[in-house]
Every structure is written in C-alpha cells, then in structure tokens.
Amino acid sequence: MAEKSFNAFEMAQAQFDQIADLLDLENGTRKFLRTPMREFSFTIPVHMDNGEVEVFQGFRIQHNDSRGPSKGGIRFHPQETIDTVRALSMWMSWKCAVVEIPLGGSKGGVICDPHNLSAREQEQICRGWVRAMVRNVGPAADVPAPDVMTNAQHMLWMLDEYESIQGSKNPGFITGKPVGMGGSLGRTEATGYGVIFTLREALKELGLRPDNTLASVQGFGNVAIYAIQLYTQMGGKVICVSCWDQKEQVSYAYRKADGIDLDELKGITDRFGGIDKTKAASLGYDVLPGDEWIEQDVDVLIPAALENQVNGETIKKASNRVKIIAEGANGPTTPEADEIIKDRGIFVIPDFLANAGGVTCSYFEQVQSNMNYFWEKDEVLGKLDIKMTAAFQAVLEMSKKKKLYMRDAAYVIAINRVAQASKDRGWV
C-alpha cells in the first residue's frame, strides 16, 4: 500500500503512544490498546479461469471490541501487508469511538489485484475469505464492509457465502451491500459527504465562506467524487484532482483553473477511478505529475487516496495559501508532516474524524438490516450530518479547552472512550 520504508502500523502506534503519554494511561492499558486483540492470517486457494490453482493471502485483524462488535472494511490490493491492516484496524477503533457509535475496530484484506482477475475469480476469493473467517465474524462479533478495490458486489458474494454456511438470513453480517439487498440509501455518498460536513464546520470556525475557497483533491474514487460533489454544491471550487493510471502504473494530476467538471471527468473514468489522460487533455485539462496535487494554490487540500501521501517532504511543497487539510483517506499524514503543519498553522480535520461518515452510515445500515426496516435517503444523510457535526464540535471543543492540535484532541476523546470501556469490562 505504500513505500517499503513506510510502516503504517508503526505510525499508528507512535500516534497512540503520544496520546497515551498525554492521558497518563496505565502501563497495562497501553500494552493492551497498542496491539490488536486478535489476528488472523490465512490462505485462499482459487481455481483460476486458466485451470491453474492460485493461492491468495488473506487477513483479518480485530483491534478492540470493548465498545461493541468490531467493524472494518476488506480491501483487495496487490501490495497489501498485515502491518497496514493492523494500523487500519486500530484507526477503526478510534474512528468508531470519536463519532460515538457502539462498535470496535477491525480490518481485513487480501493480497490480489482485481484489475487482473475475472468476476468469477474475484467471487471465489470473496467466498474463500468468508469460509476462512466464518467462526470469527458475524453481526454480533465482527461486521465487514467494502474498502479499497472492493464494492457492493463483493459484499453480496460474502453475505451469500456466510448465509449459506449458517443456514439462515443474516443481512446484518456485512455492510456496503446493494440497495434492495439490505444496503442503505446514502451509503455510497456517506464517506465523501462526511468529509465535507466536517469541512463546512471548519470553514465556519475559520470565518471562511465555501464559495470563496478553492480545493485540490488527491484521488478520484468514491470518497473523492462525493466530497467534490457536495463541496461544489456548497459553492466551493475544485481546481485539481489526481488519480492512479493503471495502464502506465503512475499517477497524474488533472488541473483546470476555472474548476473541474465532475460529470465530465466521471464520463472518462474507469471503474477503479482512473481518468483517461488523453481525453482529459482534449477537454482542456492540464495533465501534471500526480504528486503536484499538493502544490496547487488552494485553500483546502483533501487527500482521499492512500496512506503516507502528506509526509515530511510533500507538505513542504504545499502553497502558503492552504488553510485546511481534510483527510478523506486513512493515515494520509505522517507525524513528520504534522509538525510542519502545526508550525504553519494549518487547520487539520484528522482522518478518523473526517472520513468517519462511511463507518457511521455502515452502522446505520447494520441497524436497518438487523431490524429489517429501511430509512429514506434524506433521513440517512440527515442523521449522518448530525453525527458528524456533533463529533467535530466535540473535538474542536477539546482542542480549544486543552490547547491541543485537532488530531491530538480527536485521539484524546477516542482513546479515552476505548480505554474506559476496556476498564469497565474488567479487561485492564
């Protein structure tokens, strides 16, 4: 998922250690929370279309379930590592806690590249993942969801396998399902919209009008697209987006000074979020190296791709105009970059707050599936707005009260809640 020199889990632990010192957590509690409670690593043999058997490596990490069933996505990626999954599971614990939903943190993954797999081969991986994990997941234990390069179809295959093994209908086993098959209206938009709900509050705090701001976005997948959509509806203007070019195995940034046209770009985008470079150029976009998204003269940066994208080197290239970084991705900013961001006085909406709209709406889907009663889209998004706004205001209040960086304030709230739940249960 990132450079070999970068270890997401070490970063997640370093972030935790800093807040544990701030909270003066007891030694036992520190040891308990800085490592996952349970880890699963397994093989998934698949009969490929060419007649050969390929063996894929799968993971599921359950970091903490003191506040409720653990919750977290399953990502398919050729460079997946168990340490990345460990980090993501830990961040999920803090994410669920900071938005005050009764769930813990987990994460899953399979080392594979869906670009090079047929639908049947992907289905076999999904079903194999469930067969490997069926004794340790479920609506009251651990609830999976989509993540990088997985989608509603993958979730439905997993649900079908789980229900076939259990011999009963359990739509609450997994979220991110297709609408009409137990999925929730609003789920597709939820993560991107959640980023902008928190950005809206940050703009208010800084006394900025959305229609007077420009933004640059890294990524052009689901999170980025809906963040751009809502930000534009609020009056903001996105002048640059970057994404990965699967054919050339390199990223490009696409810039248009008077603002990108979202529908136009979506029309030349493949299912993995890759924009057609030649067509973009013919439509008047400047085609730049992918890392130049962070160098644009904008007020808002929205990293909505992968981890380790805003680091000690790249943040130095950011314009002096940047006032807010809204982290749509998980772990996009390294501790080294945080120090520079603090010195420059940039307002950060940390990842596990900014992008918590996805897991919040997943929780809504889980609730709806379990009670077999589904809400209208406006109701879902209205509840999401309330949750995200309340969480943002709580973190902002903590930041002001304790004079903390926003990321540290969010961590203080989240880690305190998980530590207290673990203590109340008598685990530590």
Structure description:
The protein has two domains: 8-184, Leucine Dehydrogenase, chain A, domain 1 (Rossmann fold, 3-Layer(aba) Sandwich); 188-354, Rossmann fold (3-Layer(aba) Sandwich). 43% of the residues lie in helices and 18% in strands. The protein is built from 14 helices and twelve strands. The protein has helices at residues 8-23, 27-33, 82-98, 119-133, 152-166, 187-205, 222-233, 262-266, 277-282, 335-344, 351-354, 357-371, 377-402, 406-424; strands at residues 38-47, 53-64, 70-77, 104-111, 142-146, 214-218, 237-245, 250-255, 286-289, 300-303, 324-326, 347-349. The chain has a seven-stranded mixed beta sheet with strand order 9-8-7-6-10-11-12. The protein has a five-stranded mixed beta sheet with strand order 1-2-4-3-5, with helices on both faces. Strand 7 (237-245) and strand 8 (250-255) form a beta hairpin. It is globular and about 55 Å long. The model has no long low-confidence stretch (mean pLDDT 95).
